[in-house]
Design a protein that fits this description.
six-stranded mixed β-sheet; four-stranded antiparallel β-sheet
């Protein structure tokens, strides 16, 4: 579904990704793990078209994304829930969800909104509430719900558990599993390597902009190097 081949990404003179290759197959949960500053979020932002690689290619369902504008990438079926949630805090839950469907012109937006509210009952309770008044976990649910409103085939999740209480972390990872069971393909970037590898079919380890390991989620959970570096022993 998604093919990344040898991409190089820079911030000015600083290279953030070095010859990175990865792939995501339809129906998978794929995790990208690594320490802070490894290039995980840079990779998602490059897939989304917010950053441009200086070399290499990215393709989705056979279409070249490498120079495509971000809004066109959303139209193709890729949507991102960004790091730090980035919801519109001065708007209501309803308005945030409607903005998630900005590329759509069909008659099923309201039906999809109802599906999001069924999946996230807390958002239904706070539908007319200003998004900035909600807890971090509720805002994360809104960020994911907003991303779902564009009807993505591939959902990019950037640090969905960051800064959340343990109870909300459990809930977020249950949502990831539920979305995948419903047929959604997911690429997740996550510092909580234990949780990410536990739900992932496959995973990649990024270190200072390089892919240093890849394998199934279960294989990486038991890999001595991964355990020592990312799993606390």
């Amino acid at each position: 579904m998604l093919q990344i081949k040898g991409i190089n990404v820079f911030y000015g003179a600083i290279q953030a990704l070095n010859n990175v290759s990865a792939e995501v197959n339809r129906g998978e949960i794929v995790a990208i793990i690594g320490s802070n500053g490894a290039g995980k979020s840079t990779l998602l932002r490059t897939i989304s078209g917010l950053l441009r690689p200086r070399g290499g290619t990215i393709s989705f369902e056979g279409k070249d994304l490498t120079t495509m504008p971000a809004h066109e990438i959303v139209k193709l079926g890729i949507s991102q829930s960004p790091e730090g949630r980035r919801i519109f805090t001065n708007m209501t839950v309803q308005e945030n969800l409607q903005l998630g469907a900005f590329i759509r012109k069909d008659n099923e937006i309201e039906a999809d909104q109802d599906l999001v509210l069924q999946r996230f009952p807390r958002l239904k309770e706070r539908f007319k509430q200003s998004a900035g008044t909600m807890s971090g976990g509720e805002q994360q649910m809104l960020a994911i719900g907003r991303a779902l409103m564009s009807r993505p085939q591939l959902l990019l999740l950037d640090e969905p558990s960051l800064g959340l209480a343990p109870l909300f972390v459990d809930e977020i990872f249950n949502i990831v599993l539920d979305l995948n069971k419903d047929g959604r393909t997911i690429l997740i970037v996550e510092q909580n390597a234990n949780r990410a590898l536990a739900v992932a079919h496959r995973a990649y380890v990024l270190e200072t902009g390089n892919v240093v390991l890849s394998g199934t989620g279960q294989d990486l959970l038991t890999d001595p190097k991964v355990k020592e570096a990312y799993l606390g022993g």
